[in-house]
Amino acid sequence: LQFLYLIALRGGMSGGLTERAAASPALAAGCVAALLGCGFLEGFLFQRVRMVYPEVFFDQFWFGTWVLMKVFLSAVGCSMACQGLYAMHAPDACDATRFYKHNQRGLPRTITGCLALGCGMALAATGPTMLPAAVGAGIPHAWMVLLGSIAGAFVYIVLNAFAPLEAPPSPPPPSKENGARTLDYEMQRQGALPSELKRDPSAPAAAAPGYLTLEQMGPFKRYTYAQVALFCGAGLWCVAGILEFIVPHGDDMDRYVKNGHRIKNGWPPLLAGIPIGVGQVILRVVTGDGQGGSTSIHNWVATATCGLIPRSEGYVMTTLGRWWQTIYVWGGTTLGAYVAAVAFDEYAPGTDEINATPQWRGFVGGALMLFGARLAGGCTCGHGISGVAELSVHSMAGACAIFGGGIATGLVVRAVA
């Protein structure tokens, strides 16, 4: 933690090390190595806990298995605990990375987008950050999900050009708590501020967008973010442990053996959340942001169209700060899942080993989940893990909407099938 604190001081209060990498090739190489390492470990674990398999992922949405929920609770709990410790050592540096405490979309758009994201995840049997791992593990329909995701990002960018979907709400009165980041800074980082509206650098900065976090509410007001995060993180880990006690991982995996599928037992889901939580702090130091994956595809489409579509120019991949998600999820996570699948002789499973998701479901689900993620301003890892770990009330509502949309769709798909 002391080492991370010193690195955070080097990175400054916002933006992370990636925004300073252009001036130092050695720093840029270090950032890329850290991103690839974190992504590799995440992809390796996704494959080993069996989350890349379509039926294991889909069955969570009709309560057939509980692997996804155990990993989610463990990852969020460890992220909260690690960020709480980080905030105790470097409160200002940690607070500057709490992107999701800012109300970027507003609650209605956040919930609507997350509902669409959850529906798409249930249809595609994967998620935006899980998709690179599915590609790396050779899951049959993963490439069709990727094509659908690209289509969903393109539709979002076109719609955003004609009817802005990213305009933040009116800023609140200035206060000492929201001065760490300005409205212009946040909007420019998300590509939401048109070039003709960018503020004159010599003009006074606007106030940061309004936000609502758990430590600002009710009985939590007397405590700091670090204290609330540590308390909530421990609570989520207890819930995950109780869930594991009620539904052991072995029982979840035995279900597939009884159904004739050769899905091996895999690693305990609760353990997978520990490296994800630790990696959350590393990513915040390196990039100035938490985990996420859906923005990478948004970046691809904006770059492929050369930023010519209005309001997409901020997403063009011209700096390491716009490349980091691609390096992290499509470089590291894909490679980690591939190595795990090959090392354990599980690469490209056939239909006798898994229930293959229909290609049309993969495409439609991919388009729906990526569009929803961009509308909500975050995906399962963005709102669900990073945002909830930041104690963002909007992200907590978004996480509930993701699982609500996924469960509703999963029950319908299972009933029809």
Blueprint (SSEs and pairs):
Elements: H1 2-11, H2 25-48, H3 54-59, H4 67-89, H5 91-96, H6 107-124, H7 131-136, H8 142-162, H9 183-189, H10 225-246, H11 249-258, H12 269-287, H13 294-304, H14 320-343, H15 359-376, H16 380-389, H17 393-416
Helix pairs in contact: 1-12, 2-12, 2-14, 4-10, 4-12, 4-16, 6-15, 6-17, 8-13, 8-15, 13-14, 16-17
Structure description:
- The protein has 417 residues and is an all-alpha fold.
- 62% of the residues lie in helices and 0% in strands.
- α8 (142-162) packs parallel to α15 (359-376).
- The longest helix is centred in the N-terminal third of the chain and has 24 residues, at 25-48.
- The termini are far apart.
- The model is unreliable at 4-14 and 168-210 (pLDDT under 50).
Features:
417 residues; mainly alpha; 0% strand
